[in-house]
Amino acid sequence: MQAQLLIQLQTKFQIHLDLHTTAGGATLTSVTPTTSGTTAFCDFADVSFTSASFTANGALIYNDDQSDKAVAVIAFGGDKTVSSGTFTIQFPTADASNAIIRIA
Fold it and tell me: For every residue of 15-84, which 3-state class applies, written as one string?
């Protein structure tokens, strides 16, 4: 059974924004663990929050099946704001040098 990984936005004041109707954050899909040489990495489909209005400066990927244990913390490099629009987190290329989660 594959673990359910979720992403939750982190506001400027370190308060979790509940942007999903039934659980915190949004479920990550296309979780595809892969290897290249001695590096294992993971890819996810991009995540979009529609009809959104908020400011966030990062996100937390956590494992919902393991007591919400953190998997990765993502810093956006500054505040990102959306006002009555779609906020999309675009994950990098899934390879040994760029994937959002890499273990070498």
Answer: CECCCCCCCCCEECCCCEEEEECCEEEEECCCEEEEEEEEEEEEEEEEECCCCCEEEEEEEEEEEEEEEE
